[in-house]
Design goal:
It is built from twelve helices and twelve strands. By secondary structure, the protein is α/β, with parallel strands linked by helices. Helix 7 packs antiparallel against helix 8 and helix 9 packs parallel to helix 10. The chain is globular, with a radius of gyration of 21 Å.
Length: 387
């Protein structure tokens, strides 16, 4: 019955709403270590999330772009966006490691190619049919001899978990609000119907927000709900150990300042929900929140920023060497920017993935790393986890 209902909704036009919905995927037990891969889709503006106000070049490229809210300073250079302020308690506790100037090997500023590289853990898009976490699961099974099974909750299994290791899939019986165009079509179709037309008109008249914004608010709340679900499942003794959560909405080409207030509120709430729900296993936990790329150092003419290169991310958990900024900061003067427009990437995503594989899951050695990261060019694992 559920598949019939879902197919009908897609036929009517709700397929796009389902595609916008944040998703979560699980991989099964077999180790006490927990890991959440939090994918921030769209290219999060790292200069807005982790603001380098102490950099001499910052005022030139950004000025008052983000509005009047002062960042919450973490050290003499970097401050958190005001809407990420709830994360400060984790930083003070030594469990949050903000990352900056981080990027994959992708340099073409294409969402699809960059997300492919992000999830495959390779140097080139479309070069492998497996995700880096599926390869990690396979290596763990090879090393321990224990079969690991996964479960994806959502419309699809994220590419990071796709591969030979089985990942089951189940879609939740919820959908975010319908897109405005769909609502408009239904209003036109049912306008002359005595019952349906009146019901639609009443519902739309009572709505507190325009339909598109209603859908957006539903998507953001869904991220928090999925984080709570992930924490509940990961905390179970016989539950999954690896989860992937996807959050959309970071492609901020226009009206960025206001949009990021909503995005960062939802992100901080979701990370807080994971932290609170994983308290019983917190010392075994690592959560990596990263985007496919950063954004341009200077704003565009629409109050937003365009696709960039180096970005920011967050590593959170009791297994994390936090309470400091992890960045080889390149600076924001014109000569320090990548191609004169982007934050210069100085921290490789592969270095983060290697640290998680080795220090967190105990998968080490040149042979293992060659199977996990076949494109590896000798990038050393980052010193980010207690091990």
């Amino acid at each position: 019955m559920q598949s019939t209902r879902r197919d009908a909704l897609r036929f009517l036009g709700l397929g796009s709403a389902a595609a916008m919905m944040p998703r979560i995927a699980f991989a099964a037990a077999g180790t006490e270590k927990r890991f959440v891969f939090f994918i921030l889709r769209g290219g999060m503006d790292g200069l807005a999330a982790l603001i380098p106000v102490g950099d001499p070049g910052y005022a030139r490229v950004r000025g008052e772009f983000l509005g009047q809210q002062a960042p919450l300073m973490l050290d003499s250079v970097f401050g958190l966006h005001a809407s990420l302020a709830p994360l400060k308690r984790h930083y003070d506790a030594g469990d949050l490691l903000p990352l900056h100037a981080v990027a994959s090997s992708h340099r073409e500023r294409s969402h699809f190619a960059a997300q492919d590289v992000l999830e495959a853990g390779l140097d080139r898009p479309n070069s492998n049919s497996t995700g880096w976490l599926n390869r990690l699961l396979a290596e763990h099974e090879r090393t321990t001899g224990r079969r690991k099974q996964g479960l994806a909750i959502g419309a699809t299994v994220p590419f990071a978990l796709r591969g030979p290791v089985g990942i089951n899939s189940s879609a939740p019986d919820t959908l975010p609000g319908a897109p405005a165009a769909f609502v408009d079509r239904m209003m036109a179709l049912w306008s002359e119907d005595v019952v349906l037309g009146q019901a639609m008109a009443t519902d739309q008249g009572a709505a507190a927000m325009e339909p598109r914004e209603m859908a957006r608010a539903g998507n953001l709340q869904a991220v928090v709900n999925l984080a709570r679900l992930a924490a509940e499942r990961l905390a179970q003794p016989a539950g999954p150990r690896i989860a992937v959560i996807e959050m959309n909405g970071f492609d901020t080409h226009s009206a960025e300042a206001n949009r990021l207030v909503q995005q960062f509120n939802a992100l901080s709430q979701a990370l807080d929900a994971l932290a609170d729900g994983l308290k019983p296993v917190w010392r075994h936990t690592a959560i990596l929140a990263v985007s496919e790329f950063g954004r341009t150092a200077s704003p565009n003419g629409s109050g937003g920023t365009d696709h960039g290169t180096g970005g920011a991310g967050f590593l959170l958990g009791g297994a994390v060497k936090g309470g400091r900024i992890h960045a080889d900061w390149p600076g924001l003067r014109p000569a320090q920017l990548y191609q004169g427009r982007d934050v210069m990437p100085t921290l490789s995503l592969t270095a983060l993935y290697k640290a998680l594989a080795a220090a967190h899951f105990g998968l080490d050695g040149s042979t293992v790393m060659a199977r996990l990261f076949p494109d590896d060019n000798g990038v050393p694992a980052a010193d980010i986890l207690h091990g």
